[in-house]
Automatic annotation (TrEMBL):
Subcellular location: Cell membrane; Bacterial flagellum basal body
Principal localisation: membrane
Protein name: Flagellar biosynthetic protein FliQ
Keyword Transcription regulation among record annotations: no
Family: Belongs to the FliQ/MopD/SpaQ family.
Protein's membrane topology: Multi-pass membrane protein
Xref: InterPro entries: Bac_export_3 (IPR002191), FliQ (IPR006305)
Transmembrane feature ranges: 56-77
Source organism of this protein record: Viridibacterium curvum
Keyword annotations from UniProtKB, A to Z: Bacterial flagellum, Cell membrane, Cell projection, Cilium, Flagellum, Membrane, Transmembrane, Transmembrane helix
PANTHER family, per database record: FLAGELLAR BIOSYNTHETIC PROTEIN FLIQ
Role played: Role in flagellar biosynthesis.
């Protein structure tokens, strides 16, 4: 196992982590932005107002994108386990 292989494995792991976290992060970001604009327009300064919509949107996103996330992660782990004999010897 040489340094190039280690770097490639680390890069692929980071890519998978970013792909898995991106839908949830973007949903929370968009919801927070919309709630903040609504709060600024109505001058409601309640910090807990954005919590419930974010929670609901993130749950909906998880329900919609969850199977894709699981498939992506299991495919990565399967490829990693199948590559173990080549990495060791």
């Amino acid at each position: 196992m040489n340094p190039t292989t280690v770097v490639a494995l680390g890069r692929e792991a980071m890519e998978v982590a970013l792909l898995i976290s991106a839908p949830m992060f973007l949903a929370a970001l968009a919801t927070g932005l919309l709630i903040s604009i609504l709060q600024a327009a109505t001058q409601i300064n309640e910090q807990t107002l954005s919590f419930v919509p974010k929670l609901l949107i993130m749950f909906g996103t998880l329900v919609m994108v969850g199977p894709w996330m699981i498939t992506l992660l299991t495919d990565y782990i399967r490829r990693l386990f199948e590559a173990i004999p080549n990495l060791i010897g």
